[in-house]
Specification:
The protein is elongated and about 60 Å long. The chain has 5 helices and no strands. Helix 1 runs antiparallel to helix 4 and helix 3 runs antiparallel to helix 4.
C-alpha cells in the first residue's frame, strides 16, 4: 500500500507545483518586471517563466512515467476501469508535458532567437511574433489539460482505492477486518 500512497503523493505534488507556477510564478514575473517600466520587461519575465516551465514540464513527464512504470504493482488496489483510466490519463500528462517542453517551448525558443531576444520591440504584426503568440496559447493549453488530467488521476487514485478498501470481497474480507 505504500507504493500506492507514494504514487498519489507524487502526482499531487506535481499538480500543486503546476498550479503554483500558473497562478503565482508566471503572473508575478510579468507583473513585477512591468512595474519597472523596462523596455524589455516581457523578455526578461519570459526568460524566467520559460526556465521555470521547463522544470514543471520535465517533472510532469518524469512523474507520469513513474506512475506508469509502477502501475502493475498497485493494480490490485483499483477496479479495472479506474486502473485503465488512471493509466490513460497518466499517458496524457506525459505526452502533454513532453510536447510542451520539446515541441512547443523549443519552437518558442527558436522564435525568440529569430527575434534576437527583443520580443518587446518586434511589431505585433511581425510573423514571428504572431507565431510566438500562437505557440504561447498552445503552451498554456497543453499545461492546463495536463493539470486537469493530473487532477483526475489524483481523484481516481484516492477515491477508487478508498472504495476498494471499504468494500471487502469474499476473498479478502478477513484481511479488511484486520486493517
Amino acid at each position: 500500500m505504500r507504493i500506492a500512497n507514494l504514487r498519489a503523493s507524487l502526482i499531487t505534488a506535481w499538480l500543486a507545483i503546476a498550479i503554483y507556477f500558473s497562478a503565482v510564478v508566471a503572473p508575478s514575473a510579468f507583473g513585477v518586471l512591468r512595474t519597472f517600466s523596462l523596455a524589455n520587461a516581457n523578455e526578461i519575465a519570459g526568460t524566467i517563466v520559460s526556465r521555470a516551465l521547463s522544470v514543471v514540464n520535465k517533472s510532469g513527464l518524469i512523474v507520469s512515467l513513474l506512475l506508469l512504470v509502477s502501475a502493475p504493482a498497485v493494480k490490485k488496489y483499483y477496479g479495472r476501469w479506474s486502473f485503465i483510466l488512471q493509466n490513460v490519463l497518466s499517458v496524457f500528462v506525459a505526452i502533454l508535458t513532453a510536447g510542451g517542453e520539446w515541441v512547443i517551448a523549443a519552437r518558442m525558443r527558436g522564435l525568440r532567437a529569430a527575434m534576437n531576444g527583443h520580443i518587446d520591440q518586434v511589431p505585433i504584426t511581425d510573423p514571428n511574433r504572431i507565431s510566438f503568440a500562437v505557440l504561447h496559447t498552445y503552451s498554456v493549453a497543453a499545461l492546463s489539460v495536463a493539470m486537469i488530467a493530473a487532477f483526475l488521476v489524483v481523484v481516481l487514485l484516492v477515491l477508487s482505492r478508498e472504495r476498494n478498501i471499504r468494500a471487502p470481497t469474499a476473498g479478502n474480507a478477513s484481511h479488511r477486518k484486520m486493517a
